[in-house]
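Example record used in the benchmark description.
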Amino acid sequence: MRLSIIGPAYPLRGGIAHHAYRLRQGLIARGHAVQVISFRKLYPSLLFPGTTEIDTSNLKLDAGAKALLTPLNPLTWLKAIKEVKSFAPDAVVFQWWQPFFAPVVGSLARAFGKAGIRRIIECHNIFPHESTPADRLLLKFAFKSADRFITHSNRDRELLATLADERKISVACLPALDEFRTRRESARCGRRLLFFGKVRKYKGLDVLLEAMPKALSEISCELVIAGEFYDSLDKYSRAIRELGIERNVRIVNRYIANEEVPDFFEQADVLVLPYVSASQSGVARIAFSNALPVIASYAGGLSETVIENVNGLIFPARDSNALADRIIRYFADNLGPRFAENLRARPSTDSSCAIVEAIEYAARKQ
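Model output (structure tokens):
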């Protein structure tokens, strides 16, 4: 089968670019010919809160993409349409995460439909974490021309069913990257909490910080916050001072290079996902592939992967008091080694195979 992937890819950085790399690997391993079409840049400067969109890691997760698209420049859309038609794929797999890209996704999908090419939209989110009144209209424009959809959680499948025929929707877990696996096996018997990834409002770092004083009143532990702040660093730094937890919190405010990721997961004893809203979590997949337990909120699809008292603990979203209780219990009862052993003894199914099979199914004429 011949397949085109359209979405962010190296040298752009981030989880979806990493996913494009892993997806291409998985599809090629199954004997498919794969083309990847990426973006020159994703956002206008006014809409991008980070330092750069470019991945400067030494470990390059290169999907061999052609960077053709600019989301607000229709001339680049025409170039991408020409390139894809020249490749003559059986299907195109769009990566979807943000309504800002609805015009380009919807326009390309319509052009490919006229050329008889099957159109699949793989949804990392359905609605954005920070919504606007125009979201539903934009989603309808983008999704109207899709032949099939893939989501990464049942919760997202339910949300998508409000916009599309549920018979067109498949669910497949996000795959983990072998490049992010740790080199050594950790016992997870220490006292280090990890919050990993871009810091944005919906990720609930403020809830975690508010939980720390109560947790520290019962047990000694350290919180490592590793990732670039897309929200105000001053706001969080002020909260840390006011809560009196400076000695127990370490901030690494930068994009974590690919080659550094395994070290952060090796040195942690539990990953904390205090998200206020979520669809699924690529960070959780990295944790589980490294036998690192997770304490997560009930937000979105997180509770579909974090199993209470097996590979982690769950708490109600926005409830810092409940989160503090889970942290105390996790360390006081020394749950890390047991949960880590559960993860090693019951490894998850090959999620890279699952997503490839979902694409193969969606790409067939039905």
